[in-house]
Amino acid sequence: MRFRSTLSLRARALLIGAFSLAAALPGAMSPAHAADAFPSRPVKLVVPYPPGGGNDVLARIVAPKLAEELKQQVYIENRGGAGGTIGTTAVAQAAPDGYTILIINTLPHTSAAGLYPSLPYDPIKSFAPIGEFATVSYMLAVNPKLPVHTVKDFVDLANAKPGSINYGSAGNGSATHLAAELFKSVTKAQVSHIPYKGGGQALTDLMANQVQATFENVAALVPYVQPGTLRGIAVTGPKRVALFPSLPTVAESGYPGFDVSGKFGLVAPAGTPADVIAVLNKALNRALTDPDLVKRLAAQGAEATTSTPAAYDELIRKESAVWLKVVRDTNIKSD
């Protein structure tokens, strides 16, 4: 009996040691401890467009500071194509562990549900919002030969001579197309749409007066409006833009409440643990307190913005309601 008792005690000691060793192994960590360790490897930030576009530029401004706050590498992966839906699909289908995240502009992100009938993800349900980090206004800009200087001038001329003003966009269903169609819906301006294969081509023809106007994001128009190659008429966001303080908003030009702006932020795949989302949100918001980061965003016409995951989720849902209605009401189809 004594032998058995001694053997039992030894067995217990071995078992306790085995459990202690298992608990010390990384794969056996409790969920709480695993979250504490996040991130333990590099984080991939997917840009669902080719290099050089607005999403890409903003992502490359934010990523280094985000990496500094996370104390882990944050690297960019461009997955362009199909209006941003290829890269977005890849993130929707990625492991929900916080190591694959996505930059979105709420305008094209939410409108995709109405533009692509067979979209393999839900713009809201397939993602867990991390937070907003920048707001970018769009601008109504015209060729200087067009005799208009205000929103009223523009609308009056468009309606006095229907068909005389054509606006160029980056393509059917693009953010620039949707921005213009909402403007048309609100102001009743009779302008015609000319879609291009990208915003660059639209701007080239605008400077050549092949089209007379565009609704492009402020960052893309800075090199043309500042020297006077194109004329800015108004910005489409809720307030004036620091780069062009003399330009009024469409809202203050007679259309209260008008707001077309890109709300840029980060999202993760749905199902990502809340504590991991909290780590990412905290790092993002801390990054946005850096004056140099804020200055670099401002140089792109972007205003630094912070939010909670819940607030960004609410914003995405509101934007979805607005842009799906625009798509339905105007019967816009993607290219």
TrEMBL record:
Entries under Gene3D superfamilies matching the protein? Bordetella uptake gene, domain 1, Periplasmic binding protein-like II
Q: Where is the signal peptide?
A: 1-34
Q: Which InterPro entries match?
A: BUG (IPR005064), Bug_dom1 (IPR042100)
Q: Name one Pfam family in it.
A: TctC
- Keyword tags: Signal
Q: Which family does it belong to?
A: Belongs to the UPF0065 (bug) family.
Please state what the protein is called: Tripartite tricarboxylate transporter substrate binding protein
The upper taxonomy is: Bacteria, Pseudomonadati, Pseudomonadota, Betaproteobacteria, Burkholderiales
